[in-house]
Amino acid sequence: MPRQARLDIPGLLQHVIVRGIERSDIFMDDIDQERFLERFSSLLVETCTDCFAWALLPNHFHLLLRCNHFDLSRFMRRLLAGYAVTFNRRHARSGHLFQNRYKSIVCEEEPYLLELIRYIHLNPLRAGLVKDLEELESFPWCGHGVLLGRKTLIGQTVDEVLALFANRKKAARHAYRQFLYAGVAMGKRPELVGGGLRRSQLIEGNIAVMGEYDERVLGGSDFVASLHDEPRLAGKLSHTIDLNSLQASVSDYFKIPAADILRRGRRNQYSEARELFCYLAVRELGYSGAKVGIMLGMGTASVSRAARRGEKLVESRPVMKEWWVKQLKQ
Predict the structure, then answer these.
(1) How many helices (H) and strands (E) does the chain have?
(2) What is this structure's pTM?
(3) The CATH number of 13-190 is which of 2.40.50.100, 3.30.70.1290, 3.40.50.2000, 3.40.50.720?
(4) Which helix (H) or strand (E) segment is 170 a member of?
(5) 198-329, superfamily in CATH?
(6) CA angle 162, 146, 31 (to 5 degrees)
(7) Quick check: 62 and 17 in contact, CB under 8 A?
(8) pLDDT tens track for 234-250
(9) Residues 37-48: what's their mean pLDDT?
């Protein structure tokens, strides 16, 4: 599907993931990592950017940033371009070092700030770069040791993080360490870095349903809705196709009257059109399940189930996916 514009305004917490082109290594040795951190630390201080967590792995890295006065795109452009020049010169290579587009996820600070700090700082352990949590504390390419006072990185936000655990540093570091230990058993936590289609789910009884949703956001339905009201994001979170136009497009695709998409009942010849409509409206365009349900005369749980079936339809029919891409370009 076409890429959406980044949600890039100062003050938002952002989880940034950068990978080497074709998954190639971007850090060949300790010197590369040291030079990267020198540049990164200098930029944090110069731009007054908060860094809550970071981890460098051979072919990618994670950053948890809050750019207070500087656009994330400008920060990352300076960081990546400068490091790529240094890396290429040192290793006698040319061409792109990073994938063309880094991944950035806007995150709701409560309740995700601490969860993301833990997730990012456990990356070296999950990747097998250290054998246990004790070794992780002295691992030089991760912000975990900085929070514990084992090393320093000028610009990393330490006091604000520790204050979330306790008033005194010794007690805060003990509580933080225990918090990190508890995260080991949680595994890879894919919900924190991917699978954005379900990031903003609500629960009704035992059924997951869609609230306001945006795949670029890790946060609850209310948080996503609040971003829609942010003037500085005007145009980036707006729905590109209204529901009536989507209804007409889907009916044209299936060659049925538009009103037939609204027909309810057991699965029939119009079910696929209704499922595709629900998937595109909720998952692709970000409408709430409640709003789609009002239009279709369905409950939000039914809309969510239909959207899941619609997703499978699109995944199984490349022609349908190509059609939708064309619709977005019109």
Answers:
(1) 14, 7
(2) 0.69
(3) 3.30.70.1290
(4) helix 169-183
(5) DnaA protein, C-terminal DNA-binding domain (1.10.1750.10)
(6) 160
(7) yes
(8) 555 555 678 888 999 99
(9) 95
